[in-house]
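This section describes the prediction task in plain terms. A model, or a person checking by hand, is given the sequence of a single protein chain and must write out its three-dimensional structure as a string of tokens. No templates, partner chains or ligands are provided. The sample shown here is typical of the held-out split.
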Amino acid sequence: MKKIFFTLLLGTALLCQAEAKNPPLRHQFRLGWGDMLFETFAFHPGATQDGKRTHDFGFTGHLFAEYRYSLNRVVSLGVQADWEGIFWKESKADMYRKYIGPATSVNNYNLCVIPMVRFTFFQREWVQLYAGAGIGPLFAFDNARNLEVAPALNLNLLGVQVGKGHWSGSVELGGLSALSGANKIYMLGSRLVSISLNYSW
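The expected answer:
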């Protein structure tokens, strides 16, 4: 009986020591990039309301940063900032669509600040599978000093995190949408695929 007691006591002490040496990594900060498939379809060369032609489009992709805190092995809470830029030029054109006169640069930016919740439904030493969602404001502004605000919804249908210890990488499938009515669509199913580099502590 004493041997069993001392064996259990020793096992508990070793387990507590191992837990003290390897505390759970509750914090995570990550930097990532996501596609702009919706924006590349929505913004393309064409005519403006004042008869100019739009051309020379450029896209940054979605650049995002996120901090999250794990409440337990399943649920974690955080906040994500997502930024993108869409750029083009506007020029007058003749009847043959040849550009005449100087070009005007138009720079548009979208910034989303979104509180997020994540649910981890599979966890092993090297791999985690998770899903999540968040809602927050989108700030749309440009180089003409226009500013508009709209609600944004970020859905993460499936995320895969691979790594061990402090460093890991993630791939996510989901969608980021922001609109304020049928005629005010800023994003719809944007950022379908995103990747990130993560640091946990």
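For orientation: The longest strand covers residues 99-123.
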